């Protein structure tokens, strides 16, 4: 195990040197801009060539740097986004290949550890069998048969055998502890991922409920807006009806005001007419033989000025139950009016 660790040191050192060199290379690229400036501008032809480099394990890192440079230059737009998405997908395909390789390395390490464990068990078994030799000497008390120098060598062999067994056991226990810690860490990671998944599920549920409430609130707002518009519409129609009713009332009031003087005039006219009829009736009563229209006109002008005699004649004809027209016998055939009844 120690030998394996010692053998692994140069590899680790070379890996650290490689990482440090890559870091210096990245710093130089970032500070000097030599690599950045040397990257060609984006074009469909360059993108096609870059795609071929991304699927090649040897040219992947170079192609990846070109893709990052294009993105940093903001050469990605809506028109060529499909090409960039294809290139990014190729990067992810390479990541999946790396993941597959990592799994294979882990399986190989697992097989190596298993082989190492089997070899350690075999060594332990053989060491136990070797110890049986010394135990047999101990049981039979054969130590006196060996010289002092031989006994010292045998004690060194027994001590080295015990140390070797302890080292092997120590390495096994250390590996078991590391494996247990790794398993515990994996368990904690799985537990954390499970909790994160539960929290994400709960967050998704709360987000859905929040979106549902927001949607209902928007629907209620739209309904309130619709009702508000309907109220405004009804209010507008009501105002129109009120204005129309006001105009109608004004017209009716105007008509009433206009009709009232007409009624008063008619009433006044009827009163004057009855007064004239009364005067004519009294005058004709005093002349039972009858008089003509001119005499009646002359008599009325004393009390009421009347312009035309024809108006008196029309008034007499208007009341046939009160006044009667007759024609005198003779050459003149004069028309006379008599009163046949009082009002």
From TrEMBL:
Keyword Nuclease listed? The answer is no
Q: Return the InterPro entries for the record.
A: ENOX
Q: Which GO terms describe its biological process?
A: ultradian rhythm
The molecular function GO annotations come to: oxidoreductase activity
Region (Disordered), start-end ranges: 1-27
Which GO CC terms are listed, alphabetically? external side of plasma membrane
Question: What UniProt keywords apply to this chain's record, in alphabetical order?
Answer: Coiled coil
Q: Note the coiled coil stretches, chain numbering.
A: 210-244
For this entry, the protein name equals Ecto-NOX disulfide-thiol exchanger 1 like protein
Organism encoding this protein: Argiope bruennichi
């Amino acid at each position: 195990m120690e030998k394996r660790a010692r053998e692994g040191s140069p590899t680790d050192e070379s890996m650290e040197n490689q990482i440090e060199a890559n870091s210096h290379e990245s710093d130089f690229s970032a500070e000097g801009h030599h690599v950045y400036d040397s990257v060609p501008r984006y074009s469909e032809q360059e993108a096609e060539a870059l795609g071929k480099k991304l699927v090649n394990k040897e040219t992947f890192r170079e192609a990846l740097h070109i893709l990052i440079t294009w993105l940093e230059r903001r050469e990605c737009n809506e028109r060529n986004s499909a090409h960039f998405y294809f290139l990014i997908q190729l990067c992810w395909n390479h990541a999946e290949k790396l993941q597959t390789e990592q799994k294979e390395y882990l399986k190989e390490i697992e097989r190596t550890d298993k082989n190492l464990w089997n070899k350690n068990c075999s060594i332990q078994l053989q060491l136990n069998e070797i110890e049986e030799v010394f135990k047999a000497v101990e049981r039979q008390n054969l130590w006196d048969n060996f010289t002092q120098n031989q006994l010292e060598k045998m004690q060194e062999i027994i001590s080295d055998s015990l140390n070797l067994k302890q080292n092997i056991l120590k390495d096994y226990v250390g590996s078991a502890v590391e494996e247990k810690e790794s398993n515990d860490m994996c368990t904690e990671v799985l537990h954390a991922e499970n909790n994160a998944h539960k929290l994400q599920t709960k967050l998704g549920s709360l987000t859905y409920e929040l979106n549902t409430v927001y949607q209902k609130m928007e629907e209620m707002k739209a309904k309130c807006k619709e009702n508000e518009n309907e109220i405004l519409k009804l209010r507008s129609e009501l105002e129109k009806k009120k204005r129309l009713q006001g105009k109608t009332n004004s017209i009716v009031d105007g008509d009433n005001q206009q009709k009232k003087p007409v009624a008063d005039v008619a009433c006044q006219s009827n009163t004057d007419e009855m007064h004239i009829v009364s005067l004519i009736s009294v005058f004709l009563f005093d002349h039972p033989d009858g008089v003509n229209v001119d005499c009646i006109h002359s008599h009325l002008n004393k009390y009421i000025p009347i312009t035309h005699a024809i108006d008196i004649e029309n008034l007499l004809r208007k009341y046939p139950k009160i006044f009667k027209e007759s024609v005198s016998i003779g050459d003149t055939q004069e028309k006379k009016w008599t009163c046949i009844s009082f009002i």
